[in-house]
Write a structure and sequence with these properties.
Elements lengths: L23 E6 L5 E6 L2 E5 L2 E6 L3 H9 L2 E7 L6 E12 L3 H17 L9 E12 L19 H13 L3 H15 L4 E7 L5 E8 L9 E3 L3 H9 L3 E3 L15 H4 L13 E9 L2 E10 L7 H27 L17 E4 L4 E4 L2 E4 L2 H16 L6 H6 L16
Antiparallel strand pairs: 1-2, 1-5, 3-4, 4-7, 5-6, 6-7, 8-9, 8-13, 9-10, 11-12, 12-13, 14-15, 15-16
Helix pairs in contact: 2-5, 3-4, 3-7, 4-7
């Protein structure tokens, strides 16, 4: 068995070519020798000798590669503007599996970002062998300045953050450690964390760094926009060159419907966004959202690092909830702790509840909490039944099928 000759330019040496900032061009040849050139949404590096191409609606390209497996793709290195030609040999098409799902999520994110959700549909992933990769002679293309390729983060720094996560004693400390790591390890000054509510259908903001408006309490539905897409698919979404008119989920809603809602944290000129699901035992705990005003602000290594930390935070979060519920670690001989009083504010318009001016909850759950607190203050009651809540018309509870216990 002979070993293939090394590529003139190793694929791993040009990582910014696979970031999707600039569409790649593909040239195939028809049966009669006629060339056909079109653009690809995604060229994904699989390993040192293979790439995966997004198969969408390019009928002629698909026909040509089925008859003649040879093709050439031109990619652009974002940080230098250099052009590279990839000589390819088509091997197979995948229509399912981890690679297909990852690229499908990536393409769906691009479609959402560009307003072409009904046009960009991934039909398959073409796996191609790279027989040669060469630098195109001449002057590099002129590009808008992008972010430089980040240096690898030393493992010792990652270990230190992992240790801090494992030692966090409450949710506030845990999230602060994570957000600090986004700033210190990923060089991201703007990030926030959203947690899944008890239904698993909505996300709400609990912590952020780098924004004038913290956005605490802002909500979106799972499946809505780029953030909702990452949550629904349980996969990271990384957009490296966002359109100027990118619409967040709230902006897509009618103005009268969104007027009373708390807006998501956002930058005035977001160019890159990384949304990473926070998973524990395959369950969605929340999402981490990182933003940058630079094109190509987040790279593949950043996505991997944030994913590792996000999942550890999610697992730590579930453990913290279990410890607090069970009272693990409490000293049975210690004197009872007298908690400090808190100031509770209730806003009937959206039934939101704030504790010491910090947003806690809103909607049906907020209305229920406010009722319980009122009866506790007025009557000293500490026990309530589901039946009496159901019979209280002032709460305007939804249908009986709604999960009142979770509320």
């Amino acid at each position: 068995m002979t070993t293939a000759a090394p590529l003139a330019v190793p694929l791993e040496s040009i990582p910014s070519c696979w970031e999707g900032v600039i569409p790649a061009a593909i040239c195939t040849v028809g049966e009669d020798g006629t060339p056909n050139v079109t653009y690809l949404s995604i060229v994904h590096r699989v390993d040192e000798r293979h790439v995966a191409l997004s198969r969408q609606f390019f009928k002629k390209t698909d026909e040509n590669t089925q008859r003649n497996p040879l093709a050439q793709v031109e990619v652009i290195e974002v940080d230098t503007g250099r052009l590279f030609n990839l000589d390819l040999r088509y091997e197979r098409t995948e229509t399912e599996g981890p690679l297909f799902e990852r690229m499908r999520t990536h393409l769906d994110a691009v479609a959402l970002e560009s307003g072409l959700a009904n046009v960009f549909v991934l039909k398959g992933v073409d796996i191609c062998e790279v027989t040669e990769c060469s630098l195109v002679p001449g002057k590099p293309a002129v590009l808008s300045p992008g972010a430089p390729v980040n240096s690898p983060v030393p493992l010792a720094q990652i270990e230190a953050v992992s240790q801090q996560i494992s030692e966090a004693e409450d949710l506030e400390e845990l999230l602060q450690v994570f957000l600090d790591a986004c700033r210190d390890l990923v060089h991201c000054d703007h990030a926030y964390v959203m947690l899944a509510d008890e239904t698993g259908d909505r996300l709400y903001t609990v912590a952020s760094i780098g924004y004038g408006e913290a956005g605490t309490g802002s909500e979106i539905e799972v499946g809505d926009g780029l953030i909702g897409l990452a949550a629904a698919r349980r996969q990271s979404v990384r957009v490296t060159h966002m359109a100027r008119d990118l619409r967040y989920a709230q902006a897509a809603r009618p103005a009268d419907e969104a007027r009373d809602e708390i807006p998501l944290p956002r930058l005035a000129s977001t160019q890159s966004q990384l949304v990473t699901p926070m998973l524990s035992r395959r369950e969605l705990v929340g999402v981490a959202v990182l933003e940058s005003e630079r094109i190509g602000g987040f790279q593949a290594a950043d996505e991997c690092l944030v994913g590792i930390l996000a999942n550890q935070v999610a697992t730590a979060m579930t453990l913290l909830v279990g410890v607090e519920s069970a009272g693990v670690g409490a000293d049975p001989t210690a004197a009872p702790h007298e908690p400090a009083a808190v100031v509770v504010k209730y806003y009937p318009d959206d039934e939101s509840v704030f504790l010491d001016n910090e947003y806690l909850i809103k909607g049906v759950a907020g209305g229920i909490l406010w009722r319980l607190l009122r009866h506790y203050v007025d009557e000293g009651r500490e026990e309530f039944s589901n039946r009496e809540l159901r019979l209280d018309s002032s709460l305007a509870l939804p249908d009986v099928k709604d999960n009142l216990e979770a509320r």
